[in-house]
Amino acid sequence: MKSKIKWADGVIISIKINDEFFTIAQVRGNHFLQFFNVKNKTGEWTGIDLNKEDPIFCIMVAEKKIKSIFFGEINPELVCPNLRPMPKNLISRHLCASGPNRADLIEFTDDYTNNPKIIIPGLTIERDLEVIYRYEYIGMVGDQDKIINRLLTFFDTGVNWDASKAFIFPGIKPPPQDFVVG
């Protein structure tokens, strides 16, 4: 199926996880990709309504660097695009030259272009562990192996974990299997 992908809001993409199975992602906004809790062995899709499927995560990606995992664009007549709003709350890390780094929970406006509002400043593991587990980090992902490993972990164990959070929050452990995002 390997075909050229038109990178535009709403485009649905079949993602090759490995030689055994595929999943679906949808382009959201400018550089975001939202992954869904669906998989199959062929990479061919029909009769799925992404509005009824659970999203796993929605992250900012460097699409040209991860394009080798794109198996092909999916016709929206075969798979109904997700029309639910994109997540607006994200974790933003601030590098500070004159003190410790920090991360805040922020909220974007509908167009994701205006300055976001800080919802919770200075997140800590001790005080905000559930928030850290629940929300995505806004950093751009350009390493396809990070995406594949995250998807494999999710489909194998049910744990939805962005390993880069361990860099932002030293000492943090992945959430337990029974932790549900959403």
Describe this structure in words.
There is one protein chain. The protein is an alpha+beta fold and about 180 residues long. The protein has four helices and ten strands; from the N terminus they run βββββαβββββααα. It has a five-stranded antiparallel beta sheet with strand order 5-3-2-1-6, with no helix packed on it. The protein has a three-stranded antiparallel beta sheet with strand order 8-9-10, with no helix packed on it. β1 and β2 form a beta hairpin. The longest helix is centred in the last third of the chain and has 14 residues.
List keywords for this structure.
29% strand, five-stranded antiparallel beta sheet, three-stranded antiparallel beta sheet, alpha+beta, 4 helices, 182 residues
Helix content: 10-25%
Compute the gyration radius: what is it? 17 Å
What global shape is seen?
Answer: globular
Strand percentage: 25-35%
Largest sheet: 5 strands, antiparallel
Structure summary, number of beta strands: 10
Structural class: alpha+beta
Oligomer: single chain
Number of helices: 4
Instruction: Give, in order, the helices and strands.
Output: EEEEEHEEEEEHHH
Strand order of the largest sheet: 5-3-2-1-6
Q: Gap between N and C termini, in Å? A: 33 Å
- Give the low-pLDDT segments: none
What is the average of the pLDDT values? 90
